[in-house]
């Protein structure tokens, strides 16, 4: 396979406009997806594009470049609202996978079990895409259309993931359930972002669960039920009703039964809430 490694975004976009090459970043999804099949004759390597890697802050929020790796995220100093993303970064595969795998690759691969998605959903992340025709921004929830399906158009690249400034005092937690503790695809995972008022009552909460539906989903009825609740250890026993879990449509597969996934997701949410109760503001 011939890898073309452009140094600038405009060069990369011009190449793609000319010829629809497969795109590769860390390759940690690209290569396994082609196991047992011949590789394409040519591909476009995104890792040399200037400005594609790294996390930057501007007046509107945070910009995570498309070639930013999970290790970059794990090592970055970020506000507490990013703690779920931080924790997910340390749970993606192994250290070797985290060194090569990128945030954008995780999103573009669009696996229902992509660990990066729930933490970015609770951050209200937006995906920045570019082609020779220009740049557009798509809410992450609209970018992910289904398993292996995204809103990316032919000739487009993801250039960055944008995170608006999180609400004041917000902090987040991530919990993942797998068949073993390390180097494992999620059976379910949950990210929770909360902020509390002066009396310790939840006044903002966002919850997203992954691997229990074709794309990770927010749980609006559960979020509504938590508003006004004291953020304390009692949330470890919070009753998650069917109505609150309605957006989840887990399936039976080699990793788990639908029932186990659903119950596991509910428990992960309770544990993430309890984690946040144990780490109060400041
Ligand atoms: C052993 C192993 C363990 C793993 N464990 C986990 C895990 O625990 N959790 C998890 O979520 N994932 C896991 N993964 C999957 C993978 O590591 C992650 O999804 C990673 O973030 C993918 O990033 P990448 O840069 O390697 O993507 P690539 O493999 O380079 O690309 C993935 C897809 O995205 C496209 N793409 C990449 N970047 C762009 C861009 N900027 N614009 C447009 N398209 C783009 C590619 O064309 C390809 O279709 C694992 C993989 C392996 C091999």
CATH architecture identity of the domain at 171-278: 2-Layer Sandwich
Strand content: 15-25%
Order of strands side by side in the largest beta sheet? 4-5-10-6-7
Bound small molecules, deduplicated = flavin-adenine dinucleotide
DSSP helix fraction: 25-40%
What is the CATH domain class of the domain at 171-278? Alpha Beta
Spans with pLDDT under 50 lasting ≥5 residues? none
Terminal-residue CA separation = 51 Å
Large-scale geometry: globular
Number of extended strands: 14
Query: What radius of gyration results from the CA coordinates?
Result: 19 Å
Q: How confident overall, as mean pLDDT?
A: 96
The helix/strand order is EHEHEEEHHHHHEEHEEEEEEEHH
CATH homolog superfamily of the domain at 171-278 = CO dehydrogenase flavoprotein, C-terminal domain
- Which fold name fills CATH's third level, the topology of the domain at 171-278? Enolase-like, domain 1
* Secondary-structure content class: alpha+beta
Largest sheet: 5 strands, antiparallel
Structure annotation, total helices: 10
């Amino acid at each position: 396979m011939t890898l073309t490694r452009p140094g600038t975004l405009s060069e990369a976009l011009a190449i793609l406009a000319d010829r629809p090459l497969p795109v590769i970043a860390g390759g940690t999804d690209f290569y396994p997806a082609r196991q047992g099949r011949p590789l394409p004759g040519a591909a476009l390597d995104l890792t040399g594009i200037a400005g594609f890697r790294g996390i930057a802050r501007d007046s509107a929020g945070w910009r995570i470049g498309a070639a930013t790796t999970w290790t970059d995220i794990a090592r970055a100093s970020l506000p507490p609202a990013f703690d779920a993303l931080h924790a997910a970064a340390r749970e993606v595969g192994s250290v070797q996978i985290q060194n090569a795998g990128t945030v954008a690759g995780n999103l573009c691969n669009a696996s229902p079990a992509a660990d990066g998605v729930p933490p970015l959903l609770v951050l209200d992340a937006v995906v920045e895409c570019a082609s020779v025709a220009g740049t557009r921004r798509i809410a992450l929830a609209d970018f992910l259309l289904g398993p292996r399906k995204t809103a990316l158009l032919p000739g487009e690249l993801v250039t960055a993931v944008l995170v608006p400034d999180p609400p004041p005092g917000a902090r987040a937690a991530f919990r993942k359930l797998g068949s073993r503790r390390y180097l494992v695809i999620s059976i379910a995972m949950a990210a929770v972002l909360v902020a509390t008022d002066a009396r310790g009552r939840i006044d903002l909460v966002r919850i997203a669960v992954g691997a229990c539906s074709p794309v990770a989903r927010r749980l609006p009825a559960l979020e509504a039920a938590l508003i006004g609740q004291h953020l304390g250890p009692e949330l470890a026993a919070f009753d998650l009703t069917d109505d609150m879990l309605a957006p989840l449509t887990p399936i039976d597969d080699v990793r788990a039964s639908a029932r186990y996934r659903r119950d596991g997701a509910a428990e992960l949410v309770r544990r993430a809430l309890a984690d946040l109760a144990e780490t109060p503001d400041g």
